Amino acid sequence: MTAKIAVALLVIVVAALTYPGALLVSLAVMATPAPAAPAGPPGALSWLHVAHPAHARPFIADDQGRSVLLHGAIPASLNDYWSGTNKQTDPFPGPFYPTDPAVYDGACPANSALAPYPPLCREDIDEMAGLGFNAVRLPLAWSLIEPQRGRFDTTYLDRVAQVVEWAKADRMYVIVDMHQNAYSRFMDHPANPPLPGGKQIDLGSHSGAPAWATFTDGFPSEDYAGHRELNPAVLEAFNNFWYDRAGIQDEYIKAVAFLANRFKDDSTVAGYSIFNEPLNGWNLPPGFDDLLLFPFYRRVIDAVTGIHDGLPCWTGFFMPAVCGYQDLGVHAVRQLFFLDTGLLREVTDFPTHLSMPVSSYPNVVLGVHAYTHIYTFDTFAGQPPDKASYPWGGYEQGFASADREAKAMNAALLVMEFGDSPEWDRVIVTNVLLEEEKHKVGFMFWTWKENGGSGSWGIYSSPPGGTACLRAPREQLLARVYPRASADPNATFHYEPADGGFTLHATGRAGDPSTEVYVPREVTGQVSGGGAAGVVVRGGPDGSRLAIASPTGGAFTIAVSPAPLRLSGCP
Hints:
The chain is α/β, with parallel strands linked by helices. The protein folds into 2 domains: 2-478, TIM Barrel (Alpha-Beta Barrel), CATH 3.20.20; 481-571, no CATH class. It contains 13 helices and 22 strands. The protein has helices at residues 2-18, 20-28, 122-130, 142-145, 154-169, 232-242, 248-263, 287-305, 344-348, 377-380, 395-409, 428-438, 472-478; strands at residues 49-51, 59-61, 67-68, 71-73, 135-141, 173-179, 199-200, 222-223, 269-273, 336-340, 364-369, 412-418, 443-445, 449-450, 460-461, 469-470, 482-486, 492-496, 501-508, 515-519, 527-539, 545-560. The strands form 5 sheets. The protein has an 8-stranded parallel beta barrel with strand order 4-5-6-9-10-11-12-13, surrounded by 6 helices. Strands 3, 17, 18, 19, 20, 21 and 22 form a 7-stranded antiparallel beta sheet that branches. A 3-stranded mixed beta sheet has the order 14-15-16.
């Protein structure tokens, strides 16, 4: 591995001497503002883009230039997990639930105890909208998109399109997420007997690559220290992906292009999350991030948008950091690309790379996973979240560093994933939501519904054969008053989940676009406005309200008075 990194460094040095301009573009290119997106058909959602204000962090914006805050959840049942009575000896070939969209027309397959998550059905999207979510992050599996090399499953894509149509009907954006956990569910079986310190793995939590793209080279597939990523076979499989063993990275790029080609003209699809929780293999940061991960992201953007940032290079085997990628003819140039940081950032709550712009394509969003006190260093020491000695800067550490990181990369920022076991909501979810509010960053909550007992992470508890139950404490935290769109990107706001009280402070010039504050049905307090704006309140059919402030020139407020909440969930 050391030799491979040395080769990559040598190529960079040669490229710097030979093509200094190209290297500057490929490793430190400054993005330019996105052109105004053309209007879509009547009823279509606004195209989102990334706005690039001077001397400030970029932000996600609509076609009026307003800052857009995305709140959403992550349903996991379109992913590909082992299922069965014994996940080692009796694996279900997958996918567990049908992918034929006709099965879900006016119906919903029965939930099963053999699957980790319930099926995703029409009512799920309605329920998300009912909590005030305006986005859904939809995890997909490469193993289902391209089950055989070079053969893409159009039926699976039709199923994705069905969910997109449901979301469009509820005015919700979709982030199409190329998901993986511990690389693949097609891992070799562990050594028998286990190696010292090794533990038999549970393939039920693995997903991602198809069997034909999983090269473990005989490394034992065993978990160490209770973590699925600390598995020699998983590390080797990731390593082979980053170095494009047998052209598998090229195939992955084609799979992303296959998705984008289907949805590039649909504004409901906000964009594409290119790779969930990328693990470094046998490489160490920042070399992994800067020489392998972010150059890979740039190649995907090159391929799908037609932007040419890297040097022309070969394909089919390892492409050094300076390499770009050929235009695959998709030209998805109106959507966002979400770039997850390396997985080790979740452990440190600090950037693990040199924060530089990745692409000249302007619509780039840095995706962080906010798992403070869940995957950070303190958990390895067995410290409970309310008595942890790390991170030293508390919850603020991860968010303040992410702010600086995104600004330096000329990218917007989104919390692509956060969540916990419900017993810690009062500590973890409460504080993460406060940080997201303070830093004016949206979120995607893991997960929507999950089979299991009290320790399952779902917003809904979902016992197979029983009735899914919305957890009232989570309803209280997540069904929030928040500004969905604001003409003032510097507006400040605060929501108090105990009593529904809310205040937003903003400024605007006469004629500026309106600021829209969503008030969920759970919040019963009176909505009022003050200062230099006219405020109109519109009621929704589900009991929610939308406060619309039209600036007249100067500072204004939108407030919701404290009042008893109207919660519908179960204890």
